[in-house]
Every structure is written in structure tokens, then in C-alpha cells.
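ok trying this again, last paste got cut off
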Amino acid sequence: MTTSTQTAGNIRDVVDLLATVRYLNEAVFMAAADSSLTTDATNALQALSAEIGNKLLFIDERLDEILEVQS
């Protein structure tokens, strides 16, 4: 059985991982601006970054729900 202290630690770990993914996603978005890329490559990287951003928002919402239940 997981204690609330373990759960809180796990949630902090998830929050830290999400922050890392956000930074990596920003790097992908910035890489899309590289002038050496084709238009298709730029569009693909921007679409990828947007989808990652959408998934991060979804995860944030679910995490908020979990935190509300634990309060």
C-alpha cells in the first residue's frame, strides 16, 4: 500500500518530468525555426511541438484532478 508521503513524492517526480518535457518541447519548437529546414520539415516540427503541448496540458489537468482528490 502506498502512503500519502510516497504518493506526494511520486507526484513531485511526475511534475519534475513534465517540466523537463516542456523544456524539450520548447527546444523542438525553436529547432523548427532553423532556416536550413524545408518548409515541410518546419511544419512537421511545429505540428509535433503543438501535439506534445496538447498532451502536456491534458496531463496537467489530470494531475490537478488527482491533487484535488488528495487534498
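PB: full thing came through this time. The first helix runs from residue 4 to 31.
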